[in-house]
Specification:
Elements (H helix, E strand, L loop, with lengths): L1 H8 L7 H15 L8 H12 L8 H8 L7 H11 L3 H12 L6
Helix pairs in contact: 2-6
Protein backbone atom coordinates (compact mmCIF):
# COMPACT_ATOMS: atom_id res chain seq x y z
CA UNK A 1 0.00 0.00 0.00
CA UNK A 2 2.83 2.42 0.81
CA UNK A 3 4.26 1.84 -2.66
CA UNK A 4 0.89 2.61 -4.26
CA UNK A 5 0.52 5.81 -2.22
CA UNK A 6 3.99 6.95 -3.30
CA UNK A 7 3.09 6.34 -6.94
CA UNK A 8 -0.23 8.16 -6.65
CA UNK A 9 1.22 11.18 -4.84
CA UNK A 10 4.38 11.59 -6.89
CA UNK A 11 4.78 13.89 -9.82
CA UNK A 12 4.79 12.01 -13.10
CA UNK A 13 7.87 12.14 -15.27
CA UNK A 14 6.07 10.68 -18.28
CA UNK A 15 3.13 12.09 -20.19
CA UNK A 16 -0.10 10.34 -19.20
CA UNK A 17 -3.20 10.93 -21.33
CA UNK A 18 -5.44 9.83 -18.47
CA UNK A 19 -3.99 12.35 -16.04
CA UNK A 20 -4.28 15.10 -18.64
CA UNK A 21 -7.99 14.26 -19.08
CA UNK A 22 -8.46 14.34 -15.30
CA UNK A 23 -6.68 17.70 -15.12
CA UNK A 24 -8.87 19.16 -17.84
CA UNK A 25 -11.99 17.88 -16.09
CA UNK A 26 -10.98 19.56 -12.83
CA UNK A 27 -9.89 22.81 -14.51
CA UNK A 28 -13.20 22.99 -16.39
CA UNK A 29 -15.16 22.40 -13.18
CA UNK A 30 -13.19 25.20 -11.49
CA UNK A 31 -13.80 27.61 -14.36
CA UNK A 32 -17.50 26.72 -14.53
CA UNK A 33 -17.92 28.15 -11.02
CA UNK A 34 -17.87 31.61 -12.61
CA UNK A 35 -15.70 34.57 -13.45
CA UNK A 36 -14.10 35.04 -10.01
CA UNK A 37 -12.61 31.52 -10.15
CA UNK A 38 -10.98 31.60 -13.58
CA UNK A 39 -7.42 31.71 -12.29
CA UNK A 40 -5.98 29.13 -9.94
CA UNK A 41 -4.75 31.84 -7.59
CA UNK A 42 -8.16 33.48 -7.28
CA UNK A 43 -9.88 30.12 -6.90
CA UNK A 44 -7.55 29.07 -4.07
CA UNK A 45 -7.66 32.42 -2.30
CA UNK A 46 -11.42 32.91 -2.57
CA UNK A 47 -12.26 29.36 -1.56
CA UNK A 48 -9.85 29.58 1.34
CA UNK A 49 -11.84 32.51 2.73
CA UNK A 50 -15.28 31.22 1.69
CA UNK A 51 -14.97 27.58 2.74
CA UNK A 52 -11.81 26.89 4.75
CA UNK A 53 -11.79 29.67 7.39
CA UNK A 54 -8.90 31.39 5.63
CA UNK A 55 -6.67 28.34 6.05
CA UNK A 56 -4.43 27.14 3.23
CA UNK A 57 -5.93 24.06 1.61
CA UNK A 58 -3.88 23.54 -1.56
CA UNK A 59 -0.87 25.27 -3.09
CA UNK A 60 -0.99 26.94 -6.48
CA UNK A 61 1.82 24.68 -7.68
CA UNK A 62 0.02 21.53 -6.56
CA UNK A 63 -3.25 22.58 -8.22
CA UNK A 64 -1.35 23.51 -11.38
CA UNK A 65 0.33 20.09 -11.42
CA UNK A 66 -3.01 18.34 -10.97
CA UNK A 67 -4.76 20.43 -13.63
CA UNK A 68 -1.91 19.95 -16.12
CA UNK A 69 -1.85 16.18 -15.64
CA UNK A 70 1.50 15.99 -13.88
CA UNK A 71 0.17 14.74 -10.52
CA UNK A 72 -2.50 12.42 -9.25
CA UNK A 73 -4.67 13.91 -6.56
CA UNK A 74 -4.44 12.48 -3.05
CA UNK A 75 -7.56 11.42 -1.16
CA UNK A 76 -7.11 14.33 1.27
CA UNK A 77 -6.91 16.85 -1.57
CA UNK A 78 -9.77 15.15 -3.41
CA UNK A 79 -12.06 15.88 -0.46
CA UNK A 80 -10.87 19.49 -0.20
CA UNK A 81 -11.16 20.03 -3.93
CA UNK A 82 -14.65 18.50 -3.97
CA UNK A 83 -15.71 21.00 -1.31
CA UNK A 84 -14.11 23.86 -3.24
CA UNK A 85 -15.77 22.75 -6.48
CA UNK A 86 -19.13 22.27 -4.73
CA UNK A 87 -19.18 18.61 -5.75
CA UNK A 88 -19.97 15.42 -3.88
CA UNK A 89 -16.59 13.70 -3.28
CA UNK A 90 -17.89 10.28 -4.35
CA UNK A 91 -19.36 11.67 -7.58
CA UNK A 92 -16.16 13.62 -8.28
CA UNK A 93 -14.04 10.51 -7.72
CA UNK A 94 -16.24 8.58 -10.15
CA UNK A 95 -15.90 11.32 -12.76
CA UNK A 96 -12.12 11.36 -12.25
CA UNK A 97 -11.89 7.60 -12.76
CA UNK A 98 -14.10 7.71 -15.86
CA UNK A 99 -12.01 10.54 -17.30
CA UNK A 100 -8.81 8.67 -16.53
CA UNK A 101 -10.12 5.54 -18.22
CA UNK A 102 -11.48 7.67 -21.11
CA UNK A 103 -15.01 6.42 -20.60
CA UNK A 104 -18.07 8.65 -20.93
CA UNK A 105 -19.74 9.84 -17.73
CA UNK A 106 -23.28 9.20 -16.72
Amino acid sequence: IVHIVRIIMSERKQYDDGLVRVGLLLANKRKSLGEPYQTREAFIDLRSVELFDGEPWISIRHLANIESGKNWISIEKLFALAIALEEDPVDLFEEIMLAYQNRPGR
